[in-house]
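Whiteboard transcription, Tuesday session. T.W. wrote the C-alpha cells on the left side:
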C-alpha cells in the first residue's frame, strides 16, 4: 500500500491513521452528474464495464452493445446499458474565524484535523477535492485536487490558515455558491456561532443535489463552563463586553440555552435533508471520522 510522504503529515494526521483512512470511501446518497470520467459511478447510463439494464434495439444503435446471449434465447435484439463513471466532487468548508481559536484543545485545529482526514479519503479515491476556509467570507481556497500525492498540499494549506476575524457564514456561502456549481458532497466544519445566524447561509447550500454535512465543533469549556464570581466577559470576535455575576443558576441557564441552540441547528438541518453531527474538541478526532460520520452515512 502506497502512502504519501509522512514528514508533512505529522502535525495534523498520524501515519497510522492515514493507513486506516485508506479503507474508507465517501458515498453520495443523491443522484448527481459529473463532467469527467473518474472512479465513481452515477446513475447516469453510459459505457463503463458495469452492466445496468437492457432496452430494445432501434436502428442506429451501436451494434457493439447488442446482447447476443439474450438474442439466442429470445430471438429479439436488446442493447446492453451500463453505468457511467463520473467524478464525485467533495467540498469542505472550514470555519477559521476567531472563535475557532478558542478552547483546549483548540476548536480550529480540531476542525482542520477532520478536514485533513476527509480530504485524504477523497484524494485516495480519486475524488475531486476542494477546500474553502472562511471567516467574514472565503479567505482561502484550494480547489479541484485529485490523487493522494496532493495530501501535503492540503496539509500546507490547512496549517497556513490562522483563526482570525468575525464569522460571516452567509457571505461565505454566497461566495462558495458563485464559485462551485457541481453537485456532490459538501461538509461544513464550524462552531456555528455567528451573530448573523446560520439559516441564510445554509439555505444557499440547499437545492444543489449535494449531500450537506454540518459538523458542529465545540470546546469542553463551552459545554461545561468552569467559571465563578464577578466576571467581565469579552466576545473573542467583536469585543462585545458583558459584566456578569457567575453563579450555578446562571451556568445552568447558559447550558440550557446552548443545548436549545444546538437542537435548533440540528432540527433545521434534519428538516431540510442535511446531516448534522456535534462533537467536542476533546473527543479524539479519529473517532468522529471513523465512527460518527460513518454512522451518518458519509462512508461505505
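and on the right, the sequence the group agreed on:
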Amino acid at each position: 500500500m502506497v502512502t504519501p510522504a509522512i514528514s508533512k503529515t505529522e502535525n495534523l494526521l498520524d501515519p497510522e491513521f492515514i493507513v486506516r483512512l485508506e479503507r474508507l470511501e465517501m458515498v453520495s446518497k443523491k443522484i448527481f452528474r459529473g463532467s469527467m470520467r473518474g472512479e465513481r459511478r452515477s446513475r447516469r447510463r453510459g459505457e463503463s464495464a458495469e452492466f445496468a439494464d437492457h432496452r430494445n434495439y432501434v436502428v442506429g444503435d451501436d451494434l457493439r452493445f447488442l446482447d447476443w446471449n439474450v438474442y439466442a434465447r429470445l430471438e429479439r435484439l436488446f442493447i446492453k446499458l451500463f453505468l457511467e463513471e463520473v467524478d464525485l466532487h467533495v467540498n469542505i468548508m472550514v470555519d477559521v474565524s476567531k472563535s475557532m481559536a478558542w478552547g483546549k484543545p483548540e476548536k480550529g485545529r480540531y476542525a482542520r484535523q477532520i478536514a485533513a482526514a476527509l480530504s485524504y479519503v477523497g484524494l485516495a479515491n480519486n475524488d475531486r477535492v476542494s477546500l474553502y476556509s472562511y471567516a467574514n467570507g472565503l479567505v482561502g481556497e484550494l480547489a479541484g485536487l485529485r490523487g493522494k500525492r496532493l495530501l501535503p498540499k492540503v496539509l500546507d494549506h490547512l496549517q497556513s490558515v490562522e483563526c482570525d476575524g468575525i464569522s460571516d457564514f452567509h457571505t461565505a456561502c454566497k461566495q462558495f455558491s458563485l464559485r462551485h456549481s457541481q453537485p456532490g458532497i459538501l461538509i461544513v466544519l464550524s462552531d456555528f456561532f455567528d451573530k448573523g445566524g446560520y439559516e441564510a447561509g445554509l439555505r444557499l447550500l440547499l437545492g444543489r443535489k449535494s449531500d450537506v454535512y454540518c459538523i458542529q465543533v465545540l470546546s469542553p469549556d463551552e459545554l461545561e463552563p468552569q467559571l465563578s464570581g464577578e466576571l467581565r466577559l469579552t466576545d473573542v470576535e467583536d469585543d462585545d463586553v458583558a459584566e456578569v455575576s457567575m453563579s450555578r443558576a446562571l451556568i445552568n441557564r447558559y447550558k440550557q440555552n446552548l443545548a436549545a441552540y444546538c437542537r435548533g441547528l440540528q432540527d433545521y438541518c434534519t428538516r431540510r435533508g442535511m446531516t448534522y453531527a456535534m462533537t467536542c474538541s476533546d473527543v479524539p478526532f479519529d473517532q468522529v471520522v471513523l465512527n460518527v460520520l460513518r454512522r451518518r452515512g458519509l462512508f461505505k
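Someone added at the bottom: Residues 1-10, 31-39, 41-46 have pLDDT under 50 and may be disordered.
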